[in-house]
Amino acid sequence: MMMAPKSFSMKVLHTAPECAPLAKKGGLGDVVGALPKALHKHDIDARVLLPAWPGVLEKANALGSLNPSPLGQISVALNWRAWNAQVYEAFVNGLHLYLLDQPELFNDADIYPENINALSALPFLFLSFAPFELPSVTGWKPQFLHAHDWTTAALPAALRWHRYYSSFNGDYDTVFTIHNLAHQGLFDHTAINGWGFSPAAFSSLDMNSMEFYGQLNFMKGALLTAEAITTVSPSYSWDIQTPNGGFGLDGVVSSHKSKLRGIINGVDYDVWNPAIDPMLPSRYFPANMKGKEICRKALLDECGWAEDERPIVIFVGRLTEQKGIDIMLEGLDSLLPDSFKAVIIGSGSELYNRKVQDFAQGYPGSVHAILEFSEKKAHLAYAGGDILIMPSLFEPCGISQLIAFKYGTIPVARATGGLADTIIDADGSADGTGFLFSEYSIEEFRKALRRALSAKKVPELWERIVANAMRSDFSWDASAKAYADLYHSVMLSD
Fold first, then answer.
1. Do the two domains 10-266+476-493 and 290-471 of this chain adopt the same fold?
2. Which CATH class is domain 290-471?
3. What kind of fold does domain 10-266+476-493 have according to CATH?
4. Torsion angle of C-alpha atoms 458, 399, 366, 453, degrees rounded to 10
């Protein structure tokens, strides 16, 4: 059951609320599910600490090896109460995980609460403090604690300001990764009294505290206290230093840019690869693309459509303002129903779910909406589609375009953040892998989509773009090396 023992030069614990394939809501889950595995190749023992949300233990048991008995119990004080969690050990798809079983706190299968407040934050506070207690039951102590996004931003902050955990400050180095600066973890400052932080954590007289316009800001706390900060693409690391992309924290980010590094996300090609994908009705690769036609037929069948040779345009992602849903629907509306068929997979707020549903109902023969994230249907959409649309208002990295490359599905995307870093416009280069537009507007999105549809009508041109995309290498190898180099540089600077 146990992995073969191996000697590593460094130990790193990744702490996050989601990790594919056990619990995933977005790109963060993909990163945490892939990066630790890739770090093993760089002589780093990288493990993951994850809440046992409903169904996680069962899935871990089904997909890999779950120790049926907990390693032990840890306790974290929150709101003047001791909260206890059983710690389980699991090995899933090359990942070494510790799972926190605390049904009272980790009871939301959706992971992220609809309303963020002092009460709904308790699961994430427990998760942020749990790494300090973990060695007592695992017998394994990392040198680095790697926290992800606001949900674990209290981890590096605790090493400076927590009444108890600040005593651990010399034991660990911390790395904090910003996946989306728009979500910062803002709370009424009175909450810190029950969370164990000292008064110095919040002071309107101290810019270097977690005070943020009268509120407590965990993201700011992590930016101030982590030894190193990363974002998920180079362009996004610059975007967040501007008023437009910094969401009020651009000044803080800029003042700490010396410890900021943009590292592009990778794709786990063990999961996302049409040559080996078990979820597809037929597999394919650049030298033999017949399987993509079979996948197209299966996608048409899934939508209840007959073949009429119209290109299939897909969207896979969260239905939010950030993803550009508003300009997407308006832009598609002006080109339907004759130019293409559209498949939309994802979910979001009630408002956007309803907008997409109403839109699909208006074009029953041309638009199909799946208002939930389905891993299997997402795989089929990437394989059976021709064009992926990503008209994002902002996009820290984006993983959908990287997956689409591998499946020979060509992205039409706004040139922002990681989309600008990874897509080469096909009208500007013979090495083009997609179609970009700069201005966030319906008209510019429409123009870019039209360019893609026009290219699709020229077989030789389209085949070249598809070949370029499928040859793109966005595996985790290069990104993992960048993270390994970062860990080493921090350690050498101590």
1. yes
2. alpha beta
3. Rossmann fold (3.40.50)
4. -20
Burial of 363 (0-12, 13-18, 19+ CB in 10 A): middle
| Ranges of the chain whose pLDDT falls below 50 | 1-4
Go through the chain and tell me how many residues it has: 494
SS3 365: coil
DSSP letter at 19 equals B
Q: Looking up tokens 């394919």, which residue turns up? A: 284
Tokens 């990778």: give the residue: 266
Sheet with 410-414, edge to edge strand ranges: 367-370, 341-345, 312-316, 387-390, 410-414, 435-437
Q: Are 157 and 185 in contact (CB under 8 A)?
A: no
Helix (H) or strand (E) holding 468: helix 459-471
Supply the pLDDT for residue 114: 81
Decide the pairing of beta strands 173-178 and 144-148: parallel
Say which residues have a Cβ less than 8 Å from residue 241's Cβ, sequence separation at least 6.
Answer: 250, 253, 254, 257
Name the pTM for this structure. Answer: 0.90
- 16: tokens are 């996050």
Name the burial class of residue 316, with classes exposed (0-12), middle (13-18) and buried (19+) by CB atoms within 10 angstroms of its CB.
buried
Whether 399 and 407 have beta carbons less than 8 Å apart is answered as: no
The CA distance from 215 to 189, in Å, is 5
**Are the C-beta atoms of residues 210 and 220 closer than 8 Å to each other?**
yes
Give the rounded distance of the alpha carbon of 490 from its chain centre.
24
Burial class (CB in 10 A: 0-12, 13-18, 19+), 110: exposed
Strand order in the sheet with 211-212: 186-188, 215-217, 211-212
DSSP secondary structure of 298-351? HHHHHHT-------EEEEES-BSGGGTHHHHHHHHHTTTTTS-EEEEE--B-HH
Retrieve residue 491's tokens.
Answer: 């350690």
Residue 351 burial (CB count, 10 A): 12
Name the amino acid, one letter, at 91: F
pLDDT score recorded for residue 2 = 43
Query: 421 with 398: CB under 8 angstroms?
Result: no
Domain ranges of the chain: 10-266+476-493, 290-471
Cα distances (Å, whole numbers) of residue 466 to 293, 295, 411, 426: 14, 16, 10, 10
